[in-house]
Amino acid sequence: MDYRQFIGRNVVSIKDLTKDEVECLLDLAERMIPYAKGEKRTKTLDGKIIANLFFEPSTRTRLSFESAAHRLGAQILDVSQMSATSIAKGETLADTIRMVDSYCDAIVMRHPYEGAARLATKYAKSPVINAGDGAASHPTQTLLDLFTIRNCKGKIDGLNITLVGDLKYGRTVHSLVDALMMYDVKLTFVAPDSLQMPADIVENLRNHGYDPRITSDLGEVIKDSDVLYVTRIQKERFPDPAEYKKVAGTYRIDKLALLEAKSDVIVMHPLPRVDEISTDIDDTPNAKYFEQAFNGIPVRMALLCAVLGGEI
What pLDDT score does 91 carry? Predict the structure, then answer.
């Protein structure tokens, strides 16, 4: 499949892509690794301008998109301090998008409200890439997660993938589940009852022939897992601080916990972490979260190159 089919396309949800299209982007990302590391150079997007429009804080996503753009020779318009823009004066999202669209060739947008990225596509002529909206979707994180699993395990099909932590508010796991329905995998959800995977997502899985294992006990499932995808309990997503305190620190992956796991299990995390993964496993071959973070660069390079018609 030719990645040039993506020219001008919006990427709002991983569900906008087919499995073949996902695999095409992952293959292109593989080719981007030496460029992402600075071992090779390219100016394939020279003259292109990418607007980073971030309505909520971000470190890895924003910086990796910036790095990806620079590695491809593009320029960045960084709009991450909303208090210094007309948004603080009451400008609507629609008007902001129309204005930014006239200054750039592509828009990368993060927003705290679900549906904001889809709304942006109605007002932008340039392609819009969703960098996370509310608890709904984070397609580029999903692509780098799939890329990490495929690179570390050599495949995705046939794996037992366990998602741990905040499965209710975590947009990363919601997007990942949508993508994993394209593959032949076993899914396990580990969370306190109050943070379990939303019922509509579980029902959708079952309607597609999947039978996810649902539990609050990590100990009973860790031994069967090929991938442990750990998430932070997201304090900022809780409407009630008292409810957050009830579940904070529920799960912790450390060397002792890994004694019960397969020797080749990989531990992933979208970061930032708080205390859910101990630093004592950072240097083990199981820890893949920093490699995962780096993989955001070649994956986002691949996506920018594809939607803007770059040649590699």
Answer: 82
Question: What would the pLDDT profile of 32-53 be if each residue is shown by its tens digit?
Answer: 999 999 999 999 999 999 999 9
CA 175/CA 194 separation, integer angstroms: 20
Plot region of 303 (φ>0 → left; ψ -120 to 50 → alpha; else → beta): alpha
Cα–Cα nearest to 35, from 306, 302, 303: 302
- Distance of alpha carbon 219 from alpha carbon 223, whole angstroms: 8
pTM above 0.90, yes or no: yes
In the chain, what are the domains?
3-137+295-308 (3.40.50.1370), 139-293 (3.40.50.1370)
User: CA-CA distance, 271 to 246, in Å (whole number)?
Assistant: 22
Residues paired with residue 213 on neighbouring β-strands, in sequence order: 188
Residue 164 CA to residue 161 CA, distance in Å, equals 10
